[in-house]
Amino acid sequence: MHIGVIADDFTGGLDAAGFIKKSGENVTLFNGLPGEGDLDAVGKDDSAVIAMQIRSIDSKIASDEAEKAALLLKKAGARMIYFKYCSTFDSTEKGNIGPIIERLMKVLSVTSTILVPSLPVNGRTVKDGILYVNGVELSSSPMRYHPLNPMTISYIPEILRCQSSPDLPIHLISHDVEEKRKVYDREAGAYVIDAEDDYDVMKIAKEFHDIPFATGGSALPGAFASLEKKGEEKKVSELVKADSRNTIMFVGSCSASSLEQVEAYRSIPAPVHHVSVEKSIFSRDEYIKEIVSLASSLSGEYPLLVSASKSPEERRESDEKFPDYDIAKYTEEFFSLLFRAFLEKGYTRFIVGGGETSGSVVRASGMKAFEIGREIAPGVSWMYSGKIGFALKSGNFGGKNFFSDALYE
């Protein structure tokens, strides 16, 4: 096996798998820890991605799960283990990225690693250790208001020092350092490396392609994969194009990008149903039947988009109205049940916005392994398990017209 990727959520795993696939390398995406022997089917020149749900849970539990994945990949012969996290380093000062990196370094018996969160094609860049989102410092971007992981620090070494133990030295290799590998080889530690464009990412890949453990966003594993001699490429059959008769769309993300995408879809005009918090909590079963009936009754060109996206003001209003309920938790459970209802109804295409929502849908599917299909947008590809297709995306990914592009591009 070439690269064994551990992703901290499902859309992140799909993101990484899509970039590896785009490089021409075969890749299999696993939903959670693979079973005994499941990794045996991955070829020696191919890669595997294990998508976990460890981004926003207790850091010790997250580290334990990441260790299990790393040991499985190492046993399967992965030449490099890669820990993939969000390209906006989507974690608080007490988040999981630092602890997981430290645990994996210990498990893999390595004294140094690199951190390259940059994803230039989606506007995520690092200069002088500062992470930018579309040219704006992370702490001044909409990510400052992320409901689960609000980002208030832009300097990656500072975030990592807050998360990690004093035993892990944190270094920065700035953009103007030519021979980055020489700096890396001088002493142990975790090295944050600047990358402002795809050329920078590829240069890093060429210098560090032989290290056993690396971390970052999805651009770097794609660059690593592009350097490999490819085996015979597996052809993934693109099945029936999604349309209003076999497709349903969900979005649970409250990011600024998701809000814009929902509004763009509504303005086509296309049908959008905004989730009622009250009904999703107190009359869930009847409400699910109502939405399935609504979707099935449509005869137009565009399928129904079921949206739980809210502005920061709307989220505050909901929290104040239902102070005794974890609305985010109830919403993800609601989407899990709604997905199963549509699957039982015979729907075969599911387009989902939001990392947590996507994870809920995939867990509810019970499907464990996926082939990667065509790319819809940078970091977002169709994936298939049998005759069922999914287009899953992080809340911040995709262009303004993502939902219509997923259908007909």
Structural commentary:
With 409 residues, the protein is α/β, with parallel strands linked by helices. Helix content is 37%, strand content 21%. α10 (284-297) packs across α12 and α12 crosses α13 (355-365). The two termini are 33 Å apart. The model has no long low-confidence stretch (mean pLDDT 89).
Structural classification: alpha/beta
Number of helices: 14
Strand order of the largest sheet: 9-10-5-11-4-1-3-2-16-17-18-15-12-14-13
Q: What's the assembly state of these chains?
A: single chain
Determine the strand fraction and express it as a percent band: 15-25%
**Unreliable spans:** none
Specify Rg, calculated over alpha carbons: 21 Å
Q: What portion of residues is helical?
A: 25-40%
| Distance from first to last alpha carbon | 33 Å
The number of E-state strands comes to 18
- Assign an overall shape: globular
Name the average pLDDT.
Answer: 89
Largest sheet: 15 strands, mixed
Brief account:
The protein is α/β, with parallel strands linked by helices and 409 residues long. It is built from 14 helices and 18 strands. The chain is 37% helix and 21% strand.
